[in-house]
Amino acid sequence: MKVTIGLLGCGTVGAGVVELTRRRAGRIADMTGVRPVIKHILVRDEQKPRGVVLEGERLTTRPEDVLDDPEVRVVIETIGGIEPARTFILRALRAGKHVVTANKDLIALHGEEIFDAAEAAQAEVFFEAAVGGAIPLIRPLKGCLTSNEITDLKGIINGTTNYILSKMTETGAGFDEVLREAQELGYAESDPTSDVDGLDAARKLTILASIAFHTRVRLDEVRVHGIRSITAADVAYANDLGCVIKLLAVGRERDGALQLEVRPTLVPKAHPLASVSDAFNALFVRGDAAGDLMFFGRGAGSMPTASAVVGDLIEVMQHLRMGITETRGSNRLPKKQVHANQGPAGRYYIRLTALDRPGVFAKIAGVFGQAGVSMESVLQKRVKGEDAQIVIVTHAVSQGELAAAIQGLKDLGSVPSIDNVLPVEELEGEGPVLEDVMDDVVRTHPELS
Ligand SMILES: NC(=O)C1=CN([C@@H]2O[C@H](COP(=O)(O)OP(=O)(O)OC[C@H]3O[C@@H](n4cnc5c(N)ncnc54)[C@H](OP(=O)(O)O)[C@@H]3O)[C@@H](O)[C@H]2O)C=CC1
Ligand SMILES: N[C@@H](CC=O)C(=O)O
């Protein structure tokens, strides 16, 4: 017996899905009793070279060839973006076809509509590839960990920005050059501003937080800062301070309210997240029963993402064989409060340009003192002419104290620009105590130390 599949899109991910489905067809047939056959592949341009040699699969530019073919039982969507992917998925679901998608934009923004359509049609939607590429995150959060109250999510969930920041740190290469490399490697979104401006990570955090905190988080509830403001100078200063810069996504639940943020952060080199480089992703999860967990793997790229998509496909096929359909709809989740502007207290890195004149530094120190912010370390480098570049790392401060210090600097007259303000991650702190996880691993597996 075979199950006929329609594939929407044959770019980086779609080509990987064709290749891996073909490679594993025999095993899938052994496991599920049914053989997956990709019949149609929808693309925009049939003449374009594909990253995979097509055998029996037929390329088409007509959506109806896939969506109106009654033989197609499963539609895999790898087009990306909102439209026409949304319309195609809704059409497929309404026709009773099961859907597997890698599309985080769509799940983050239109998840409710899609899950409700799936429930109404008694069809399934799977989206493991939408977050973390190859790393299983959705299934563990939805399944294995549902008995937990999850309080913390923290990690690197965008491969492109991690690739850019890693290469800037390792080779001193410029931003634009490394972004081009990330695009050539197939890591970046078709519009890479989503990656660079932190939106891709914010969409993924929206999905993860909705599942982990049993609620429905809206994208506009995530505070988002991208990496566009990070310069080679920040990377070099961070290095001088014993840190690397990473784009961290953080979700916390405290007293029933959520804090959600995506932000470039100075991470001490001894911190486990500091060594997550290239397009790798890592996520720490803290649950009340499970304790701290760490997920790590390739967060982007053709075959890593195809691994997750084909994993979903296999689950759909198992369900087809067993004659079961799992649908959940979206409306049963309570809405939780989100504190939009209350990040936690912590240390901050501040890079500013000041007039290089006697007494200016004393004035800056005075502003910090008045705002109740004490300085942990100061780096000062002469730039050019009358200006000096000063980098200050604060001791732990509240958001209010930080805002007061920044306003005081702006009012001073001798600080022409505040060039960057970034949080500094603690080795121990409110979030998962990462080195405890590592200590536990080493204690229980001394051979790994
Ligand atoms: N790249 C990655 O590492 C990862 C990507 N994802 C997600 O997977 C999805 C696909 O990403 P990726 O493969 O990188 O994207 P690509 O841009 O490489 O591929 C998109 C494919 O969709 C086709 N397509 C686009 N618009 C249309 C349309 N209007 N009608 C028909 N076909 C269309 C394109 O056709 P044509 O080739 O003819 O132009 C192309 O084959 C996105 O949702 C992305 O966020 C998730 C995890 C990782
Ligand atoms: N553009 C994304 C691709 C995977 O989701 C990323 O860089 O992480």
TrEMBL record:
Its EC number is 1.1.1.3. Its cofactor is a metal cation. Pathway: Amino-acid biosynthesis; L-threonine biosynthesis; L-threonine from L-aspartate: step 3/5; Amino-acid biosynthesis; L-methionine biosynthesis via de novo pathway; L-homoserine from L-aspartate: step 3/3. Keywords: Amino-acid biosynthesis, Methionine biosynthesis, NADP, Oxidoreductase, Threonine biosynthesis. InterPro entries: ACT-like_dom_sf (IPR045865), ACT_dom (IPR002912), Asp/hSer_DH_NAD-bd (IPR005106), HDH (IPR016204), HDH_cat (IPR001342), HDH_CS (IPR019811), NAD(P)-bd_dom_sf (IPR036291). It is an enzyme of class 1 (oxidoreductase). It holds the Pfam family Homoserine_dh. Belongs to the homoserine dehydrogenase family. This is Homoserine dehydrogenase. It comes from Alicyclobacillus cycloheptanicus. The lineage of its organism: Bacteria, Bacillati, Bacillota, Bacilli, Bacillales.
